[in-house]
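PROTEIN DESIGN WORKSHEET
SECTION A - STRUCTURE
LENGTH: 217
TOKENS:
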């Protein structure tokens, strides 16, 4: 625990008041302060104010309250710090998983990449990049329905607004693969290439006779 956290344990109720903002903790801290002031006044300034036996009674009570509250506050602060550290580690896990999934994807380790992406989506179900990459893996493994389902799920989230082009391209790639058309060549590109580079045709009979006359000459 940090040094400042230890200081919070020195006054009853202060730790909970600082970390949780609880009103009962504020009341408890104020009540302890009032009792402490009364004990000091009756012990050092006016012993006759609350009776001679009051200091003998109040000091053991205040000491017990202080010791117990300090131990409880120390324990609670340890738990709170542990939860914060766990939350920070958990926040870093999804980013690490996505980077590892990308590496496995480039190595064509589809199973490992899929497992990591699924784990990432458990932490961040609205992650557009992870769902797109998972849909791509499904497409490459010819799991068309699952790929389409991932894209449909993604489009239900607001985070998909900046990924509409990629989602449309992935849907087109799924359709192309299902039709056994190469992903990188669209129908329009095939048509334009056919017009630019027409296939050779058989010569007509008149063209054949002209070719024979040219050879004879």
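SECTION B - SEQUENCE
RESIDUE ASSIGNMENT:
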């Amino acid at each position: 625990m940090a040094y400042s956290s230890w200081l919070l344990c020195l006054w009853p109720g202060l730790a909970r008041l600082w970390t949780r903002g609880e009103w009962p903790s504020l009341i408890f801290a104020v009540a302890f302060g009032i009792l402490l002031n009364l004990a000091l006044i009756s012990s050092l300034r006016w012993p006759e104010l609350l009776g001679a036996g009051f200091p003998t009674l109040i000091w053991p009570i205040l000491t017990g309250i202080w010791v117990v509250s300090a131990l409880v506050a120390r324990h609670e602060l340890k738990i709170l710090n542990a939860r914060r550290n766990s939350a920070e580690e958990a926040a870093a896990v999804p980013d690490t998983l996505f980077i590892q999934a990308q590496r496995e994807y480039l190595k064509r380790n589809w199973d490992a990449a899929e497992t990591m992406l699924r784990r990432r989506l458990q932490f961040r179900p609205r992650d557009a990049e992870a769902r797109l990459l998972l849909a791509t893996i499904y497409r490459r493994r010819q799991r068309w329905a699952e790929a389409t389902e991932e894209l449909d799920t993604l489009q239900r989230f607001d985070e998909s607004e900046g990924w509409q082009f990629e989602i449309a391209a992935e849907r087109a790639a799924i359709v192309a693969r299902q039709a056994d058309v190469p992903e990188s060549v669209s129908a329009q590109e095939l048509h334009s290439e056919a017009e630019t580079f027409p296939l050779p045709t058989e010569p007509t009979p008149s063209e054949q006779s002209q070719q024979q006359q040219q050879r004879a000459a």
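SECTION C - NOTES
Residues 183-209 have pLDDT under 50 and may be disordered.
Residues 92-196 form a domain with the Serine Threonine Protein Phosphatase 5, Tetratricopeptide repeat fold (CATH 1.25.40.10).
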